[in-house]
Amino acid sequence: MKKLLATFVLSLFSVMSFAQIEGKWKTIDDETKQAKSIVEIWKKSDGKYYGKVSQLLIKPASPTCTGCKDDRKGKPILGMEIIRGLVKDGDEFTDGTITDPKTGKTYKCTITRAGDKLNVRGYMGVSILGRTQVWHKVN
Q1: Are 79 and 55 in contact (CB under 8 A)?
Q2: 106-114 and 92-99 as β-strands: parallel, antiparallel, unpaired?
Q3: Domain of 111?
Q4: pLDDT tens-digit series, residues 42-71
Q5: SS3 sequence, the chain?
Q6: What is the CATH number of the domain that holds 84?
Q7: 120 pLDDT tier (thresholds 50, 70, 90)
Q8: Contact 131, 41 (CB under 8 A)
Q9: 0.90 cut: is pTM over it?
């Protein structure tokens, strides 16, 4: 009985950690399939999740976000908070935004985790009108 209980508890912890998105993730461009950057995701004291560019793997055309329309306009891409306000909803993280520092456009964002990969979906309006990038966990 003790072994069964221990197995259940360990399984519960593995499922709980499986759904987490905190940590460092290698972004992969969905068009070129090249690794572009490392994004670090964390949970702020407001209970929401945020992510910033912690490392650039490819030199961007511009080191700053020239197309951004908000507080990120003209700010360096390295260190930029590109994910804002995600809320955990079951196995999904929703209701936040993601900004493409290349264009400065901000999209609604949903993230789901599949093992050591994140499916990061950016969209305008409804989710069906968007695109998904797969990011890989960095150890």
Answers
A1: no
A2: antiparallel
A3: 2-137
A4: 999 999 999 999 999 999 999 999 999 999
A5: CHHHHHHHHHHHHHHHHHCCCCEEEEEECCCCCCEEEEEEEEECCCCCEEEEEEEECCCCCCCECCCCCCCCCCCECCCCEEEEEEEEECCEEEEEEEECCCCCCEEEEEEEEECCEEEEEEECCCCCCEEEEEEEECC
A6: 2.40.128.520
A7: very high
A8: no
A9: no
Which conformational region is residue 21 in: left (phi greater than 0), alpha (psi within -120 to 50 degrees), or beta? alpha
129 Cβ contact partners less than 8 Å away, ≥ 6 residues apart: 123
What's the structural domain count of the chain? 1
Place of tokens 């309006």: 125
In the structure encoding, which two tokens stand for residue 51, read together? 């992510």
Q: State the amino acid at position 135 in one-letter form.
A: W
Strands 49-56 and 81-89: antiparallel
